[in-house]
Specification:
Distance between the termini: 40 Å
Shape: globular
CATH class: Alpha Beta
Oligomer: single chain
Order of helices and strands: EEEHEHEHHEHHEHEHHEEHEE
Number of domains: 1
Structural class: alpha/beta
Strand order of the largest sheet: 1-4-5-6-7-8-9-10
Helix content: 25-40%
CATH topology: pyruvate-formate lyase- activating enzyme
Number of strands: 12
Radius of gyration: 20 Å
Strand content: 15-25%
Length: 314
């Protein structure tokens, strides 16, 4: 398939076959995200999807697990997803699980009966971008759900027999709020029981609305030390059982394993990274040198004035 845009594929799905059924993200308005801003959202035709299924089948492919792309494939109507699932099972008789990314409103828009039908058709897991357990953070980042809404829709998924994977984002609450965000997010995850947790630590991009908030002094990013400390606290608090994978955009650190059984090993690994950052020059997850000195001025966020010392130099 001539892939349009860039592949958005959870790291835990590296062994599944990726079948795009949409292009881009139907919402595309989170302040921090730059994955799909250059794309116009559209659903792929059944002809395009079937052509890719036939290509993979022709190469001898018969995967057990299929990941449906792109940014929020679950935006499609239930009848469209059911038709796609039927085609997939026809081409891949061994397929038992369909997984995809979703937004909370995608779940809200489907009835309980539709969710159960999708589960019976093989939809086994949805990855939801919950990001944070703090409502003011979700609101500031222009997420399209509240904590309560996410919790209610996840309960409906569980009732239908669909598991969920949580995408969270350390650093999303900003400087000085890492521990608060860790505790609220971990509490949310413990209540909602995700199958997997993927922590995409915040990367700072110059071409997203959050850049304007930083330049205007309305948001101060956390440095990598605070983000690591936030992740450490999350790992302390998560109950499990679940699989965890924590990644950082530009900082060479990754922690993954199963909780609770790998907790001590994961905490020790994270503690070593924290120790290496303590006393060192502050580091930020800039993805471009064009950001220069946006952090030199005091900023106001959550009614508290904060200033970052020693902004990164380029």
């Amino acid at each position: 398939m001539d892939y349009e845009g860039q592949i958005c594929h959870p790291p835990m799905e590296r062994s599944s076959v990726n079948i795009p059924i949409t292009v881009g993200c139907s919402y595309n308005a989170c302040k921090f995200c730059d994955l799909f801003r250059h794309l116009k959202y559209r659903a792929l035709s059944m002809e395009e999807i079937e052509k890719e299924l036939a290509r993979i089948r022709g190469l001898g492919g018969d995967p057990k697990v299929v990941f449906l792309g792109d940014g929020d494939a679950f935006f499609l109507k239930a009848e469209e997803l059911l038709a796609i699932a039927e085609k997939i099972h026809a081409y891949f008789p061994s397929c038992t699980q369909l997984r995809m990314d979703a937004r909370v409103p995608n779940v809200t828009e489907k009835t309980d009966a539709e969710l159960k039908a999708l589960a019976e058709a093989g939809v086994q897991c949805l990855y939801l971008g919950v990001e944070s357990g703090l409502d003011d953070v979700l609101r500031f980042m222009n997420k399209d759900h509240t904590v309560a809404e996410a919790e209610a829709q996840i309960a409906r998924l569980h009732e239908a027999g669909i598991e969920y994977g949580a995408h969270i984002m350390t650093g999303v609450a900003g400087a000085g709020r890492g521990q608060e965000n860790a505790e609220s997010t971990a509490a949310f995850l413990n209540r909602t029981k995700p199958w997997k947790v993927v922590n995409f630590s915040m990367g700072l991009h110059p071409n997203v609305p959050l850049a304007e908030e930083i330049e205007a002094g309305r948001f101060t990013p956390s440095d990598e030390l605070e983000i690591l400390q936030e992740e450490f606290r999350i790992l302390e608090l998560l109950e499990g059982p679940l699989e965890y994978d924590g990644l950082h955009d530009v900082f060479e650190f990754r922690v993954r394993g199963w909780l609770p059984q790998d907790r001590e090993k994961m905490l020790a690994h994270t503690a070593r990274a924290i120790e290496a950052q303590q006393g060192a020059e502050k580091r930020y997850s800039w993805t471009s040198p064009d950001w220069r000195c946006y952090l030199q001025t005091p900023v106001i966020f959550q009614d508290q004035a904060r200033q970052i010392e020693n902004p990164p130099q380029y």
